[in-house]
Amino acid sequence: MITKLLIANRGEIACRVIRSARQMGIATVAVYSDADAHAPHVKMADEAVHIGPSPARESYLVAERIIKAAKDTGADAIHPGYGFLSENAAFARTCAKNKIIFVGPSPEAIEAMGLKDRAKALMEEAGVPVTPGYHGDNQDADFLKKQADQIGYPVLIKAVAGGGGKGMRKVEKSADFAAALESCKREAASSFGDENVLIEKYITSPRHIEVQVFGDSHGQVVHLFERDCSLQRRHQKVLEEAPAPGMSEEVREAMCSAAVRAAQAVNYAGAGTVEFIVDGSGELRADGFYFMEMNTRLQVEHPVTEMVTGLDLVRLQLEVAAGGRVPAQDEIALSGHAIEARLYAEDPVTGFLPSTGVLERLDLPEGREGVRVDSGVEQGGEVTMFYDPMIAKIIAHGGDREEAIERLIDAIDSDVGVWPVRTNAGFLRRALAHPDFAAGDVYTGFIEAHLDELVPPGLPALHYGVAALVLSGEERGSDPWDTLAGFRLNGAPRVEYGFDAGGERLSVRLTEGGVSVNGEPLQLSDVQGYLSEQGGVVEFVHEDDTLLAGVEHHRDGLLITLQGQAVLVRDHDAAVDADALAGGDAIKAPMPGKMLSLSVKPGDAVTKGQTLAVMEAMKMEMALTAPRDGVVDAVNAAEGQQVNEGDVLVALAEDGEG
Fold first, then answer.
1. What number of other Cβ atoms are within 10 A of residue 491's Cβ?
2. Residues 6+ apart with CB under 8 A from 414
3. Which UniProt keywords apply (predicted)?
4. pLDDT at residue 582, as a whole number
5. pTM of the predicted model as reported, rounded to 2 decimal places
6. Residue 257: enclosing H or E segment and its boundaries?
């Protein structure tokens, strides 16, 4: 029996584990870095131990400090969450040596599934279908290129120790292979300490469907049905749902049985996920899926499985770790449909660059019927450069897929408000409302194929006009539809507001003739709705009861929320233009991070789009490219250096110079 549990993680998963442990009467211990000293998981736990500086490699990834914290507090078990040390076999062994229960599978199972090349060989022996490719030990670059050429493009280069989309590159043609391989190996070495890769055939129209499995120490392995995680961006999951759209009982039986065989092949105990790449070019087929990898831990998207099965997976993890048994397969049943959306601190308009800063406003849809929120941040907290930029997971359950989608859209529309940190809320809402998604036409290239629809260049000008009208009525206490309100007949008949939207300056002007945005007139006849006041917030609601805009007072002006995205509105003269990330003569750091490489020096001639530098921030590698043809005038950073957002890293000589 576990009496005291240390959670070797942070953020929402640490909070999630603490909730289940508390319900079971288990005392909890949190660990934290400098950046997390005041984080919610620290406040929730019964005890908390400081384990080092903010960078994860100096705190959450230092096994010795985690073990010492457990021993010092008398914790008899450690839950690793996901990421960090969760799939580290050496850490699991260290726990055992110190007589501490590791809430997860055996070190041997982690090792067997941790390296993708060995795992695929093991799966072939177990009769689990695998994707064609090269999974051998020869890591010579020329040899790997020949293998890719023989397999046929497109191919996927994948780190053998990888996960979470790290160390993975799709290569469309032979000429691009060498550069992709080098980048993939560098990211793999940085993220996992192992630069070895494997090569796989890239399945066209692929879907990503995974099966939740659970084993115990008594030899029993069951599945908890499937999840569809096909909507991804850069191999990172965005929306996950259970069950998978279009899944038949025949295909479900084949896929779930294969997942159970995969777990049985390594005597698996605990929570695990077997991931399959699925041919989505037509109807799902029993012979149309291939083993991709097994994650030997709890997944980020586990709440959708909990909502359709009624099981608490963290509770089950703790029970199994203490010697308990998993339920019988016939005791596990599907009920309804669940969808999870990952709310990230990132700006889709700037290419999904992470957004950092203090969460001065954080509204989440907690307490709504059929909606669950898992979060590890709070209003007043800070999103830093050191960790994954997830703010929350919003999960909706319904009697069917249509109801789950509607509930999730309503939750995002009505109850999500974040400022000044930017989020992907509007992007999520548009993805959920897309007719192809509603029809179940999901595949891993969905977001890329519909990017222009999912990430418009900014909020529609109509919404800014609506916001200006709301603002006019809020400031003057009069009818906002009367565009002459507050105007003097013998004065300049206009009021102007400045908006900073995604780095773009928008000027909204009210005159007796109507409203214009950046000089373009708006057709006010298209604006139909009504005003209401909710708790001091003036809201503009469309006639179909969709919230279009809300306005409330803020110390720097008025805060307008437009479909989940907040914009601070100041007096026109006080509005400040946002600097471009890469101007005509300068390549700037898009956010705080570490320089991985610099490939140019002063005097070098460069062409538009050429990679000049690579930096790493918030677990993401970013290539910075030349904004135009030119000559390098100055290089202001060095490899390994920490840089701040907006720092000029490379400067180009003015046109005609150099």
1. 7
2. 365, 547
3. ATP-binding, Biotin, Ligase, Nucleotide-binding
4. 32
5. 0.73
6. helix 249-264
Distance between CA atoms of residues 505 and 486, nearest Å: 25
Q: Is 179 in contact with 142 (CB distance < 8 Å)? A: no
Q: Where are the alpha helices (DSSP H) in 477-621?
A: none
* Tokens representing residue 369 in the block: 């019927």
Whether residue 271 has pLDDT greater than 90? yes
pLDDT tens digit sequence for 52-108: 999 999 999 999 999 999 999 999 999 999 999 999 999 999 999 999 999 999 999
Q: What is the largest CA-CA distance in the chain?
A: 87
The C-alpha atoms of residue 398 and residue 211 are separated, in whole angstroms, by: 21
Three-state DSSP at 16 gives helix
Tell me the per-residue pLDDT of 410-454, one tens digit each, with 9 for 90 and over: 888 777 878 778 888 888 988 999 999 999 999 999 999 999 888
C-beta of residue 114 within 8 angstroms of C-beta of residue 87: yes
Which residues touch 331 (CB under 8 Å, ≥6 apart)?
none
- List, for residues 359-393, the tens digit of each pLDDT value: 988 889 988 999 999 999 999 999 998 898 999 99
Q: Residue type for 613, please?
A: A
> What amino acid occupies position 612?
L
pLDDT digits (tens, 9 = 90+) for 290-310: 998 999 999 999 999 999 999
Q: List, in sequence order, every beta strand (DSSP E) within 143-280.
A: 155-163, 166-171, 197-201, 206-215, 221-233, 236-242, 270-279
Q: Of the candidates 348, 355, 353, which has an alpha carbon nearest to the alpha carbon of residue 454?
A: 348
| Residue 471 CB partners (closer than 8 Å, separation 6+) | 480, 497, 551, 558, 560, 569
d(CA 492, CA 658): 49
In degrees, rounded to 5, the angle at the alpha carbon of residue 163 between the alpha carbons of residues 261 and 98 is 80
Site of tokens 């999520």: 428
Convert 584-603 to b/e letters by CB count within 10 Å (16 or more is b). ebbbbbbbbbbbbbbebeee
Consecutive H or E run containing 537:
strand 537-542
Angle at CA of residue 203, ends 200 and 206, nearest 5°: 130
| pLDDT (average), residues 492-515 | 56
Q: How far is CA 382 from CA 144, 358, 394, 502, 525, in A?
A: 43, 4, 20, 20, 42
Q: How far is CA 345 from CA 158, 304, 423, 592, in A?
A: 26, 22, 5, 14
Please give the structure tokens belonging to residue 414: 């009505």
Question: Which two tokens mark 417?
Answer: 């408000």
Task: Report the C-alpha gap between 279 and 151 in whole angstroms.
Answer: 17
Strand pairing class (270-279; 206-215): antiparallel
Q: Token pair 């280069």 is at which residue? A: 157
C-beta separation of 362 from 11 below 8 A: no
Per-residue model confidence (pLDDT) at position 135: 82
Confidence tier at 152 by pLDDT (50, 70, 90)? confident
Q: Are strands 520-521 and 605-606 parallel, antiparallel or unpaired?
A: unpaired
Who has greater pLDDT, 220 or 167? 220
Phi, psi of 413 (to 5 degrees): -60, -45
Instruction: List beta partners, residue 562.
Output: 565
Query: Nearest CA to 99 among 64, 67, 62?
Result: 67
Phi, psi torsion values for 36, nearest 5 degrees: -105, 20
**Measuring CA to CA, which residue among 445, 453, 448 is closest to residue 429?**
453
Q: Which residues are catalytic?
A: 297
Distance of CA 202 to the CA centre of its chain: 23
Here the tokens at position 21 are 């442990």
